[in-house]
Amino acid sequence: MQMGQAFGKFSDSSSGNNEIRVIMMGLGASGKTTILEKLQSKNENSTVGIPTVGLNVENVKYKNVLFIVGEIGGQCSHYLRPHYFYNDALIYVVDSLNHERFEVAKAEFQDIIKHPSMLNRLILVLANKQDMKGAMTAMEVCEGLGLLEVKDRKWDVKGTCALTGDGLYEGLDWFISTLSQIKAVE
User: Fold this and answer.
1) How do residues 117-138 score in pLDDT, each as one tens digit?
2) Which H or E run contains 155?
3) Separation between Cα atoms, residue 147 and residue 171, nearest integer Å
4) What is the pLDDT of residues 49-70, one digit of tens each?
5) Long-range residue pairs from 14-18, CB within 8 A, at least 24 positions apart, any chain
6) Rounded Cα–Cα distance for residues 26 and 8 (Å)
7) What is the pTM of this model?
8) C-alpha separations of 123 from 42, 53, 99 in Å
9) Within 10 Å of residue 173's Cβ, how many Cβ atoms?
């Protein structure tokens, strides 16, 4: 499947009918729920979200694009996760402060992107908790996850803070820009 075929409902941003299906994954307590709540509310005072159990699907409207975001709880059984991969893109959230669990995050990330249903999908890694002293930089997360070796699809890494929203909208902008470039080539 060509990358553009995965994004059949995405067209130029002037139509207002653009849709991107995104699966958001990461270890428990990485900030997925807080990120989703921040993207939905766009308010200044986001709070730490209640952990998701199972699957939580929410709509996020941004720049005439509807992002349908399926957040998979970090406590989900690993064997259930492949069933949720029918999406256009992946957001993988990393707790940049949790050095002890980084190897687990890396192993899970590698398993996810190697899954056959994830081929030709855009990948956005959010190196979350950048506001905390001792957090790994976005580049350290990128290198640690092995993203520099991923040559068969488009990806990006953004340093983020879920509580303030720093970096989150830049990630959505990257999706929109990348998809626009793909559609222009088709």
Assistant:
1) 888 899 999 999 999 999 999 9
2) strand 155-159
3) 16
4) 555 556 788 999 999 999 999 8
5) 14/64, 15/64, 16/64, 18/64, 18/65, 18/66
6) 26
7) 0.86
8) 23, 23, 22
9) 13
